[in-house]
Specification:
TIM Barrel, 13 strands, 5-stranded parallel β-sheet
Length: 563
């Protein structure tokens, strides 16, 4: 248990604030043009957001009109965060000039410049300029900010690209801590004190749907960062607090049944808040396949507002404190993440480990396991690989530039970048292939015999084939095999699935197979003891919980002519 530590006291496992659980409600704004982005930003802050994250990736920072972007926004009163794909010097100059133009008090202004050289390496495989110049600029920006914007966080250690490439929770923690550690080391070597560096780093983490793990992750991360700063010799323990900004996960968002994304984001937001994040962004539920609209942005914002204003999650400091499960998970994650972190340090730190390809390989290995678990339905993705919406069609709603983004440029790459993945994407592509073909193969459930078993297996089979967008026809039951086959042929079924009990398959399956006479594909639902005997009689198709969803449905698509 960590109850011996006070809330808001070093090593901050129980939170950064001693008497509440306040956090900043951040609205992400994509900046493609200043006027539209300003309108969206104003709407957000007028409707409950306490901060903004301005994502400037499709517009060169050099051409950005920051004054127009921030028109009528009280930049000294909100948490103003930036994410850019180019260097930070131009952005700093524009931001400092905007504060000067307004002649406002900067002593309480807060936000994040988002200068992220290690994140740039992670996402794009290259530096802003080069390794030496990037860290030289980091030092210069730190010095400038200490005088002009003392409460602004300059450096960003962004673990989200790691998690969204398919890493485990432990990998995300360890590698993000290694980023922070490298920032401390590099800037300390340049002559800065740890006390000046540590509070100027913001950590960005992704929050997945493993509810208790994510709560424990935030708590354990603060603990480990405090220990790292202590090892570097920080003098003021009050400066060892990790500022953590969380964003709901991308890797588990889905194209199909997209409103389920709202539910995922609600539990993810709860995990983040209970864990004690300092600020939080919720992704719009449709962000996988469309540019966010006013509705999806409002819902994303309102998730947090409900947690704060209706559920009062901001009132209780360390709400998870004392829970045996959460405390044990916190200790376990801290232990495992520390082990991996020390391995990275032994390899020369984050950038060296990344340049050698070690981090990429470990993340890709875990991502492969995630995809395999989804295909085998060991990992449930609601609405995609389990309990799909049978009638849903999504192809016409897809913005191709969003769903199929252009590959990153490889010019100037010095290391392999981490590619974002979504664990549902392979299954989605399977269903999109069916939609693109213009036909929905009919799958007919021939239910007969034992009531409980035929119902269970027909439900399983309907869900199984609907995952690929096939039209499923369920039935209450037939008095005879002949009646069922006749109904299937009248329905013009492409696939007939026999649903009964293991004991009855030995009698029903050969009769049904013979009567069907290759006029449709014949499938047996289950893995009966008589399978070998049935195979000898020419029955080759079986589906069960052991079937690999992706491989099996791809096979049936080929059989019905969907290529």
């Amino acid at each position: 248990s960590h109850l011996s530590y006070g809330v808001g006291q070093f090593p901050y496992v129980r939170g950064n604030r001693p008497d509440n659980n306040e956090w900043e409600i951040i609205q992400d704004i994509e900046v493609n043009d200043e006027v539209t982005a300003n309108s969206e930003a104003l709407d957000a802050v007028n409707r409950g957001a306490t901060g903004l994250c301005l994502i400037v990736k499709n517009l060169p920072v050099e051409k950005l009109n920051l004054s127009a972007l921030l028109t009528d926004i009280y930049i000294q009163c909100i948490d103003l965060q930036f994410e850019t794909s180019s260097g930070g010097e131009v952005l700093w100059n524009k931001l400092a000039a905007e504060f000067d133009r307004r002649s406002v008090d900067t002593s309480t202004a807060k936000g994040s410049l988002g200068y992220n050289p290690l994140g740039r390496l992670t996402q794009y495989g290259k530096w802003y300029s080069n390794e030496v110049n990037d860290f030289k600029l980091a030092h210069e920006l730190m010095e400038k900010a200490s005088d002009r914007l003392p409460h602004y966080r300059v450096l960003l250690a962004d673990g989200r690209p790691i998690r969204e490439a398919g890493s485990s929770t432990v990998q995300e923690m360890a590698y993000t801590l290694a980023m922070g550690s490298e920032y401390l080391q590099r800037l300390a070597d340049a002559g800065m004190s740890i006390d000046d560096i540590a509070p100027r780093i913001q950590f960005n983490l992704s929050i997945g749907s493993n509810y208790f793990f994510e709560i424990a992750k935030i708590r354990a991360f603060r603990l480990l960062w405090a220990r790292i700063t202590e090892a570097y010799g920080i003098k003021s323990k009050a400066l060892a607090k990790a500022y953590i900004h969380a964003t709901t996960a991308w890797h588990n968002m889905t194209l199909y049944d997209p409103y389920v994304n709202m539910l995922r984001e609600t539990t993810e937001s709860m995990s983040a808040v209970i864990g004690g994040v300092d600020s939080l962004s919720v992704r719009p539920f449709n962000g996988v396949y469309q540019h966010p609209n006013s509705f999806s942005s409002r819902i994303a914002r309102n998730v947090q507002i409900i947690l704060k204003e209706e559920a009062h999650f901001d009132k209780v400091a360390d709400p998870a404190g004392g829970s045996y499960y959460v405390e044990a998970l916190t200790a376990s994650l801290a232990h495992e993440a520390w082990k991996l972190f020390t391995q990275v340090e032994e390899q020369g730190g984050y950038s060296q480990s990344f340049m050698k390809g070690i981090i990429q390989q470990q993340v890709k290995d875990h991502a492969r396991k995630m995809f395999a678990d989804v295909a085998a339905r060991k990992c449930t993705v609601l609405g995609t690989n389990q309990y799909p919406n049978f009638q849903e069609l999504m192809l016409s709603q897809i913005d191709k530039e969003v769903y199929w983004p252009k590959p990153l440029s490889v010019d100037g790459v010095v290391a392999e970048p981490l590619q974002p993945i979504r664990i549902s994407s392979e299954i989605e592509h399977l269903r999109l292939k069916t939609e693109t073909s213009g036909k929905r193969p009919k799958v007919f459930m021939l239910t007969i015999g034992n009531l409980a078993m035929r119902l269970a297996r027909s439900q399983f089979s309907c869900n199984f084939f609907a995952v690929a967008g096939f039209e499923v026809i369920d039935n209450n039951g037939f008095a005879s095999v002949a009646e069922g086959i006749d109904a299937a042929l009248k329905a013009k079924a492409d696939i007939v699935v026999l649903c009964s009990s293991d004991d009855e398959y030995a009698a029903y399956a050969p009769e049904a197979f013979k009567l069907l006479a290759n006029r449709a594909i014949f499938v047996v639902a289950g893995n009966p003891p008589c399978m070998e005997d049935l195979q000898i009689q020419g029955i080759k198709n079986f589906i069960s919980i052991r079937s690999n969803l992706l491989d099996t449905l791809s096979y049936y698509q080929q059989l019905v002519g969907i290529n």
